[in-house]
Structures
1.
Amino acid sequence: MPKTSSLSQTIPAVVTQGYMIASGKNKQSPYPMGSIQMQIPHFNQRGLNLERYYPATLNLLISPKTFKILKADYLFQNVNWAQGFPAEDFSFITCEIEFQKRWFNSFIYYPHPETKIDHFQNESTLEVITDYLSGIEYGDMVNLKVSSEKLVLK
C-alpha cells in the first residue's frame, strides 16, 4: 500500500450507520453477499488487492465538514461488477484509521455518485475499507489520517 504523504491531516470522525449494502447485512439488498465482496475481484484485476480487509465499509461522519477528492491513489472507471446493473466508477485513497489508540492502514472508498443508481451517502460521510475492528460501535469517535494533497475538507 502506498504510504500517506508527510502532509497528512488528521480528521476526527464519528462512526455512523450506513445502508449496510457494502456488508450485505441489509435484507433488502440486491447483493446478499455484500457489494464489497462482489467488487473485490474487479478491483484486484485492476491492481488493488483488498482481500486482507473486512468486506464492508466503515462510515465516518465528519459533519459539519464535507470533502473533495483532489487526487485518488486508484481510479477505476466503468467497473461492471454486478450483472444487470450499470457500470460504476470508484476512487480509493490511502489513509489510516485510529481506533482504541491503534492505527490501521485503510482506504477511503468512493463510488462516484454520478455513476451510482442508488444508496447515496451524505456529503459529510466518508466510507472506509479497513481491518475488522473488534468492539467498534456506532457513535464511536475515530481519527482519520489522510494526505491533504489527496483530500480536502470544505
Note: The chain has one domain: 8-153.
2.
Amino acid sequence: MNENTDTPARQALDALAVDTENTAALDTLAQSDVLVPVPEDANPEATADPAVVALPILEQPGGDPIVPVFTSEGELAGVLPSVSRYRLVPLGALASQWPTEELSLSIDPGSAHPLTLTSEGVRTLLART
C-alpha cells in the first residue's frame, strides 16, 4: 500500500506538536476527515446509519478510556493491524456528538505527533466547524 501520509490533518498535528495554540492547525484538524475503527461488537444496524458512529473505546491502564482515530490507513494499521473496517468521519462531527462522560479522543496514537484531547477539549476545541 503506497499512500500519502502527509495529509492536511497530519500536517496540522505536526504543527500542534510545536504550538498547541495554533488556531489554523486546530481549524484544519476540526475540518478534516478521520478514520474511526468500527468496533467488532458494533450493532450492524447502527453501523449502517450514516448519522450514527459507534465509537471504539480502548481502556488505558490507570487512565481514562480513549477513542482512537487516525489520519490515514497507514496510521490505523500501525496501531490496530487487526481492524478490518473503519468509517471516514469529519472530526468536527464527532465533536458535536461527543458523549459527556470522561472519554478522551486520541488522534494517531502511536505516531510521532499524536494528539489526545479530554472530552471537554473535544467538544470545545474541535467543534470549530
Note: Residues 8-125 form a domain with the Trna Endonuclease; Chain: A, domain 1 fold (CATH 3.40.1350).
3.
Amino acid sequence: MPSMKVTQTVLFLLIFYFVFADVTLSPYYPQFFSKVFGVKDLDYTAFYIFIARLTVIIAVPIWGVLSRYIEVKHLLYIGQWISFVILILMATAQDAQQFLTYTIFLLVGKSSFFLLYPLLIELNGQKRRSAVVGAYHMVFHGAIIVGTLSGAWFIRLENPLLLFYGLAVVELMLWLLSIFTFRSLSTRKKAVARKEAPTYSTKRQLAFLALMGVVIFAFHTANNMIRPYFTTYTMNDFHLSIAESSVLFMVPSAMAILAYPVIRKFYSKERVPFIFLLALGVLTISLLVQGMTGSFMVLVIGRIFYGFFLAIAQSALELYLFNRSSNHLQVYTVASSFQNAGLLVAPYLASATLTSYSLAAPFVFAGAICLGTLLVARLSMSIEAKPPFQENKMKEAM
C-alpha cells in the first residue's frame, strides 16, 4: 500500500504533466498553425483557443457532478484513456479543422485532471493548506518553464505533430502509475463528511459568490490576454529570436517558483485578503509597464515583478476560496468554470485589441481589467457570510 507521501508525489506529477502538455505549444500556436497546416491568419489562434476553453468550461462541471457518484480516481482513469487515444489521432491530423476536432475530444478527457488539485487540498487538511497551494504553484510554473522550452524545440521539428505520439506514451505510463498508486485511495468517506459541514447563509453568500465569480473571471481574463501573442509581440517590437522570446515568456514562471517560500511562510487566514489586493495592485502596474515601454530592460523588470506577484495573487485567491468553503471539490469546479470563462474570452480580447491598436495593446487593456478587478475584489472581501447556526442562535437570543 503506497504511503500518503507517495500518493501526493504522484498527484503532483500528474499535475505537472497536465500543465506541461497544455502549454508546450500554446506560446507558439501562430507559428504552429502556419508551419503545419499553412494557416497564417492570427485570428485563427484566437478561434482555436476560444473553442478549446469553451470545451473545458462545459466539461469541468460535468466531471465535478460525476465525482459525487464515482470515485475521483476512476474518473481520472477514464480521462487518461480518452486522452491516450485522442493524442495518437492528433499526431495524424491532416488539416487545422481535423486537429481542432481532435482537440475538443482531448480536452474532454483532460478536464478530469481539474479534480486533482482539490483532492490534494482535501488530503492535507487546513493546517497544510498554504504549503500545498504554494507547492502546487511551484509545480505548475515549473511545468510551464519545461513546457515552454520543449515547445521552442518541438516547433523547429520538420513535423511538430510527432509531439503527440510522445505525449500518448507518457499518458499510458502515467495511467499505469496511477492504477498502482491510487488503488487504496478513496474519496467517498470525505464526500460524506463534507455533507455534515455547515453551509453559509443564502443571500449574503450568493452576493459573495457572484462578486467572487466576477473577480475570478476578470483576473484570469487579464492574465491570459497577454499570452497568445507574446512571442509575436516581442519578436516584432523588440526584435528577439524565438528562443529569446521563449525565455522571456517563461520569466514569470521562474519568479513564481521563487515566490513559493513567501506563500508558505507569510500566508495566514487573516492576511490572505490583504495579500491578494496588494499583489493585484502590483500586477496592474507591471502589466501597464510591459505594454507601454520601449525599453527591453524595463520589459524584463516588468516580467520579473509580474511573475512574482502573479503567483502571490493566484495563491491568495485560491486560499481565500478554500478557507471559506467546506466542499473544496465543488467550489473549485465552480471557480474553474469562471476561470475558464476568462480563458475563453481572453484570446478574443487580445486579438481585438491588437487588431485595433497594436501588439502591445493587450498588456494595457489587461492592466485596466486588473484595476477594475481590484475594486470588485475589495467589495467582495468586505462581505461576511455567516453560518446558519450562528443566525439561529441570534434569533433564539431575541
Note: Confidence is low (pLDDT under 50) at residues 189-200, 384-398.
4.
Amino acid sequence: MAESGLSLKKLDGKVAIVTGGASGIGKATARLFANNGARMVVIADIQDELGQRVAESIGLEHASYIHCDVSDEEQVKSLVESTVQNHGQLDIMVSNAGIGSRSDQTILDLDFLELDRLFAINIRGMAACVKHAARAMVDGHVRGSIVCTAGVASCTGFDKFIDYFMSKHAVLGLVRSASNQLGGHGIRVNCVSPFVITTPLTCGVHGVDAEQAEEVEKIFEPHLPLKGVVLKENHIADVLLFLASNDSACVSGHNLVVDRGFLAK
C-alpha cells in the first residue's frame, strides 16, 4: 500500500503534446494523461471543433487545443515552440496523427499521388513531430519520452493497401533509428502498434459510420486468438501512458504490439 499523501499519478507536472488528439486513440490518450497528473496536455489536430471540445471537457487549466497539420513542418515546429513558450518545457510527445489508404491499391496499380498524400502525414508528419520534439527536449535538457503510433501493419504485409503498409513500416524504422540517436540525451523513443480499432478513421476506411462499428469488429474477430475482450481506444491509451511515464524508464527503440495475439498466429 502506498504511503499516505504520496501521489499515484504517473505524469505529475509533465507537459505533453498529443497529435491527432481530437478523436479516437488521441482523444482517449489526452484524457488519460490529464487524469494522471499531466500539468498540460496540448491537443493538436485539424478537427478544430472536436479538438476544442475535448480540451474543454478535460478542463482548460490542464488541456489546450492547437490547430496543426502535421504534413506542414512549420506548423509542427510552431506547435512545439508555442508549447515550450507557454508551459516552460516539453516532456512527452505522442505522435499519433495518421490517415488510412483511400483505395485497395496493390503494387501493380500503385498511385504515387495517393502514396505521396499518405506519406506526407504518416511519414513526413511523424518525422517532423519526432524531430522538433527532440530538439525542444535537447535544448531544455529534458529526459523526455517520444511515442509514435504505428500499427500491426508495421510488422506484416497484406494483399492491398500497400501505401499504408509501407508507411507503417517506415514509422518503425524512424523509431529504431531515432532511439539510437537520442539515447545519449536521455530521450526515449518508442512506438505502439495496435490491431484494427473501430475509431472514426477505421470506420471511414471500411465505409461505415460510428453506429456500425460493431460490424467492423465482426470482420476481424475470427482472426484474433485472444477472446473475451474487444480492443478499444482506452487499451492503447493505457499502453501510451506506460511508454510516456517512468514505468518504462529503461524501454527505448521498442515496438509494443497490442493485437490480441494476431501476429503470434
Note: The beta strands are 15-19, 40-45, 63-67, 92-95, 145-149, 188-194, 255-258.
